[in-house]
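Re: that backbone. Tokens:
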């Protein structure tokens, strides 16, 4: 009665590497997801910075701050921002003033190369502000 039996699986030569397939699959999936994030994150970061700068430009243009009073000065500021964040040259920048409201728009496509596929990341950033807000 004092004996306890411990159930053990018999070790067989045919079961070697049984857990390796699942490990390889998980590591492969994690590596693919990591690669996609690695390639996409800089483009997303650049888009968010452009949106932030565009909002700041709209605010300054609405109140007529120095360097933002005319559309020509505004386009010069946009060129500085586009060079700083490596925005593609074919980006379309428009500024529209309707009474006391200012609307700035930027549209461009940035390709992301994923070795076997190139994804075109569309950026349609818009910022608006009004004079009476301040």
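Recovered sequence:
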């Amino acid at each position: 009665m004092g004996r306890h039996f411990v159930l053990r699986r018999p070790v067989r030569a045919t079961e070697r590497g049984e857990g390796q397939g699942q490990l390889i699959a998980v590591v492969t999936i994690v590596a693919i997801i990591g690669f996609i994030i690695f390639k996409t994150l800089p483009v997303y970061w650049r888009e968010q910075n452009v949106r932030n700068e565009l909002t700041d430009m709209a605010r300054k243009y609405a109140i007529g701050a120095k360097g933002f009073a005319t559309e020509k000065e505004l386009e010069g500021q946009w060129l500085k921002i586009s060079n700083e964040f490596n925005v593609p040259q074919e980006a379309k920048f428009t500024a529209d003033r309707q009474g006391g409201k200012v609307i700035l728009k930027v549209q461009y496509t940035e390709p992301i190369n994923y070795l076997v596929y190139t994804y075109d990341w569309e950026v349609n950033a818009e910022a608006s502000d009004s004079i009476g807000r301040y």
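Residues 61 and 69 are 6 Å apart (CA to CA). The chain has a mean pLDDT of 86.
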